[in-house]
Structure formats: structure tokens, C-alpha cells
Design a protein that fits this description.
The chain is α+β, with helices and mostly antiparallel strands and 87 residues long. Helix content is 43%, strand content 26%. A hairpin with a 2-residue loop joins strand 1 (23-29) and strand 2 (32-38). The protein is elongated and about 45 Å long.
Amino acid sequence: MIACTLSNLELRSIIESAFLPKRCNCTVLDDTMTVEVIDPLTERVELLASGIKLDKLDTSRALCELISELRADLINTQHLQRQALAS
């Protein structure tokens, strides 16, 4: 496994670009990160994940897994919202 030696700015850039064309804001406070995914058309927050420990993002694999989990959460949230609108 390859260890990540990315700065907080690089981590934020990778995660934020992973959600394009949606807008994604990553905020780092101390040793945790908050990720907010926003629909650019409606300005509605579609996903909010907080308390992500930066020390867990110590490998490229861990970073990829985080992005995959966040994408899956976003898809599930969108699916639930569509179901709620349909009923």
C-alpha cells in the first residue's frame, strides 16, 4: 500500500473534484474533515458528512474508499428523496 503524504489542500482538492459537476466543499478543522455536496442548480445540500478523521486517510486506498462511500451515500440520499417526492 502506498502512503499518502498529501496536504490538507491536496486532499480537499481531490475530494471536491470527485463530485463534479456538483459543488463540493471540504472543511478541515484540527484533525477532522467535513464534506458537503451541493446541487449547483438548487443550492440544496445533498450530502453532509462530518467527523471524517484525517489520520484515517493515510493511504491512497483509504482516500478512494472514502470517496466511494460518500458517492454511495449521495446516491442513496438522492434515491430516498425521489421516493419521498413520488409518494
